[in-house]
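Table S2 (text version). Query chain:
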Amino acid sequence: MNLQEDIHRIKEVMGVVLKPEIEPIYDFYKTVYSPDDKSITGAYMITGEDENNIQVMNIKEMARENRIFMDNAQDYSLNIQKFNLPKSQVEVLGKDEEMEGFNYIKIPYWLYKKMIDQLEVIRIKGKKRSDVTYAQSKNNNFLKKLNDPDVIKYISITNPDKSGIANLRYAVQRYKPEE
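Corresponding structure-token output:
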């Protein structure tokens, strides 16, 4: 360290020079770990709430290796997760400015590890097109989840590709409600 750096450091410690506030950086496409308070921040869609819980939806976009459409869109399948988070443990930080309907939620790391299957954010950047696997097309439970209006809203926001939505709507027609 040289003399100027030493003087600046002493002024910082004494409070003469204020450290600039660092804006937290959030990423819509993945979760971000904050070592200061041991928390994870991610973008999720809030679909409802009561006095104790927030109902949250997260859809993982699972890219299929070696499958790309002719227009260079990445093929991916869906993993739909809908779950509750306790209001006492999480903090809603605010809305995502670019993706309407999504909120950044700060979650303690221990809770994230406990619910990693639901809370892990996996989204594909760039041009993409959703597709339903053969196994999913035969799974009535998956088709029931896909029939949820919140799921269609979520997918239309994260993936504006019209042919991908058409594929999903076609798959939903196979859904047979239990009687």
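Notes on Table S2: Residues 22-172 form one domain. The beta strands are 32-34, 39-49, 53-68, 74-86, 91-95, 102-108, 128-130.
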